[in-house]
Amino acid sequence: MIGSKLKQLAFGLRNPRATVGYPLAPLAPAPEFRGRVTVDTEKCVGCGGCADVCASRCIRITDIDAVTRVIRRYLDRCLHCGRCEDACAYGAVRLVADWELGTSDRRDLFIEQRLFMAACDRCGRCYVPAHPLDHLSCVGP
């Protein structure tokens, strides 16, 4: 019995460590890792492409009136598949390498975004005004 324990000890001392010291020195994720979902609200135009491709249906879009849209993201249901990031043509939705998502408050995993969706009087297409004064009407040639 002592012989087998000595073999185990020699094996352990001869081979490198197989674990990481996580709490003291966290291991960096791989470059292609898909972690926490972040939304750049300045780039988002409210097109809804992310909600169309969401596999878990955790992105809900509600049109309050003709010019106000609310986008709610329930990240506690997110699968981190990356479809929303691929579908966003404006680069507003990104999955960053942050993987520590544990929280005691469910509201930490909720993103609500209110967008003013102005419609052009001439062509009827929606746009996001660049300046607060442009919220009043569509000015075009």
Protein topology:
Blueprint: H1 2-14, E1 37-39, H2 49-53, E2 59-63, E3 68-74, H3 83-87, E4 93-95, E5 110-116, E6 118-119, E7 126-127
Antiparallel strand pairs: 1-4, 2-3, 3-5, 6-7
Report on this structure:
- The protein is of the alpha+beta class and 141 residues long.
- The protein has helices spanning 2-14, 49-53, 83-87, and strands spanning 37-39, 59-63, 68-74, 93-95, 110-116, 118-119, 126-127.
- The strands form three sheets. Strands 2-3-5 form a three-stranded antiparallel sheet, with no helix packed on it.
- The mean pLDDT is 82.
Q: Looking at the structure, what is the overall shape?
A: elongated
Largest sheet: 3 strands, antiparallel
Alpha-carbon distance between the termini? 91 Å
Strand order of the largest sheet: 2-3-5
- SSE pattern, N- to C-terminal: HEHEEHEEEE
Average pLDDT, all residues: 82
* Rg calculated over all Cα atoms: 24 Å
Question: Brief description of this entry?
Answer:
With 141 residues, the chain is of the alpha+beta class. 16% of the residues lie in helices and 21% in strands.
